[in-house]
Specification:
Helix content is about 85%, strand content about 5%. A two-stranded antiparallel ribbon has the order 1-2. The protein starts with a helix and ends in a 5-residue tail after the last helix.
């Protein structure tokens, strides 16, 4: 294959990807992703910031013993991990229901094109 043929093939491929990116299906898929990711990221960052601020400025509250040596601060710290797992589970559920079917349709339409 000559370098001219490679350039043409690369340009054609780029045009295909640009067309796909601008399609209503792909735009909708990106919007659906953002509808979940941005609010969830903001929520988690606010929750983490609350934890950090309480740890820094509310020593008395965070050192309150709940049972034995278990303090409010320790429970909040562990809840950071729990919230990460919960967000991951929610995202997997959301992706399986709302994102993957659309992505599969887009992929099928691309792979099903004649000459591919």
């Amino acid at each position: 294959m000559s370098s001219t043929e490679e350039d043409v093939g690369g340009a054609e491929s780029q045009t295909d990807w640009e067309r796909i990116q601008e399609s209503p299906e792909f735009t909708g898929l990106r919007r659906r992703l953002r509808v979940f990711v941005f609010p969830m990221t903001a929520l988690f960052l606010l929750w983490y910031l609350l934890y950090v601020l309480l740890a820094d400025y509310a020593h008395g509250f965070m050192s309150t013993k709940l049972a034995g040596n278990i303090t409010v601060g320790l429970v909040f710290g562990l809840l950071q991990f729990v919230s990460t797992f919960v967000i991951t589970a929610l995202y997997v559920r959301y992706a399986n229901r709302k994102l993957d079917p659309v992505a599969d349709e887009i992929r099928a339409s691309i792979e099903g094109e004649p000459g591919r």
